[in-house]
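pipeline: protein-struct stage 2 | run 1193 | ABC transporter substrate-binding protein
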Amino acid sequence: MTDRRQFMTAALVAAAGLPWRAAHAATATADLDPRQAGRVRAERDDAAIRAAAGYRWVRDDAFTVAISPHAPPVSTYATDARTVVGADPDYAQLVADALGRTLVLVPIAWADWPLGLTSGKYDAVISNVGVTEKRKEKYDFTTYRLGLHGFYVRTGSPIARIAEPKDIAGLRIITGAGTSQERILLEWNRRNVAQGLKPAELQYFDDDAASRVALLSGRADAELNPNASLAYEAARTGKIRRVGVVNAGWPANADVAIATRRGSGLAPALTLATNALIGSGRYGQALARWGLQSEAIARAETNPPGLPSF
């Protein structure tokens, strides 16, 4: 899946959380205050702490987490331009609380996380990283959020729904080159052509502003990219709206996860902590704070099947 946005089935969304209108309202009032007075906190989880007893932490009494502050609501900088805030920092704080440790966030460029994690600069990466079979060769994973891509159109578009291959026939769709969302669209095009339908025209932009001009001006019909950042934009500007979602691993699932060094022994403890946070309701509260309740998972897993190599 795509793990950075040059920022992140209708039935799936309905089952996963509050209605879209509620999520829309939440993202429209995102908290960018560096004090984060509304951040959800959690109690110590003795079972998770025991599970991590054999792990050698990067810093005493701390949970050191790499994060790429790319764009809200997943992670960004607060109004002081220093404090990292968003759904991923909130989740990292909950896990640190559960482990009885102080959270230390290390801002990084997203592309640098594999080397930094392998070299022991931090305990974990919580930065919209997706589970793939290739990555599982080097890293362990604890899932914490659905990997969703969203189809978005300009607010006045006549397009009401995109849920299956035939819905994109003949459309002009903005997406990212070399991404999982592009892979999905190419496969949908292949199926449409086999059925005698017109393929979608895929459009690629290096600049987010240019891609938005294309969508709003009608030079593109829709955009398929990570849902979280597009949902935030829709709530903030009202200029675009969601007409569908698809899992990043389509036709299978590929969820977002904490990455840790393979064989370090930390992943099982993080999975225990996450499932306790889900059960207590703290996890859901933290996601709802950023309007991402539609991306909630029912249960965390350690090293689940990931996106295969294509």
